[in-house]
């Protein structure tokens, strides 16, 4: 039950991954809340929710194909020299600047991930303007997290005490101007160099560019199936920069924190790296498939700390799930965090136990098992590039350095609380003391 007009809006403080999990434990895995003039349904039920809300149209299907086949394919990710350059630069930076001194691991991996994705999107030579773009991203991130009464009661849109509308207009104008310059620069190069090879993400997208309206067909040939406008390209770039930077960096920091809090598992991972790779060279992408325990640690971290704890959808039409009527245009929240902590699916779900993934019928990252959906599930799951960057950065950090907590801190004293937002990063940055462990040069 809720109040007239506002419905259940007094429960806004409960709409976090932990708050919704508590409500689900009390009232059941499917919740229906009235939020102003809209409705919100939260699901801790696994398979039913995904199957019910997987409707998608031609544009979404072709965009998904473009991302998987062109922008984020594993083959393409492995071919990005900029990734190796940035990782080597980070390792060199740490190696040059350590003498028993502390390193802010959170800031380190966020900077690395941001640089990799920025270069992959805009080109290796496009470092100018990065600070401006980061400023714009940070403003959008703040705006996305702000409470806006108009989202729930549209006729109160004139009530804007924090000036959100003006801030959104200014941020959008800044973003448009910045990406327009990038696109114009790429188009000019394309005219001057007619046989220019496809390089960064903008080049890939411009291969589908049309000055007319968006065109989408069901052709299997992607080149003939879709034409993208400038606004389409801007939206994709925005999604990549937001969806790839903070989620990957947060996952890396959580993995390092969990291993720092579990020294025995850290020893096992590094022993595996020593055996497979050796102490006389850095890790290479071809080594990943030979590191099963490292993969287990990555999976276990994603189970405990999914990059996006609440997966958001909207019903295109009214439907029924497990006997419950869900109205059209309902906002759907699938609580990936709660699913990963479900006692019905996981033994001792709140503990970091990577070896659980060594058992038979092991669950994977790819959204085929509804008990484990850190990147979403099925056709709506995130592309493989995120996972590749995540594994790459963690492996290099663990192989090149030994990590210890500062000032004699015990593993049990490490703060493991999170902060709710679009992602759920650590409440405090992880700080650690690295020591080189390889006998080959690191810089």
TrEMBL record:
Q: Origin, by domain of life? A: Eukaryota
Q: Which InterPro entries match?
A: CYP450_84A (IPR053062), Cyt_P450 (IPR001128), Cyt_P450_E_grp-I (IPR002401), Cyt_P450_sf (IPR036396)
Protein family according to the UniProt entry: Belongs to the cytochrome P450 family.
Name its species: Lithospermum erythrorhizon (Purple gromwell)
Q: Name one GO molecular function term.
A: heme binding
Task: Kindly provide the name given to this protein in its UniProt entry.
Answer: Oxygenase
Sorted alphabetically, which Pfam families does this protein's record hold?
p450 (PF00067)
The positions annotated for binding heme are: 382
* Cofactor(s) required, per the database record: heme
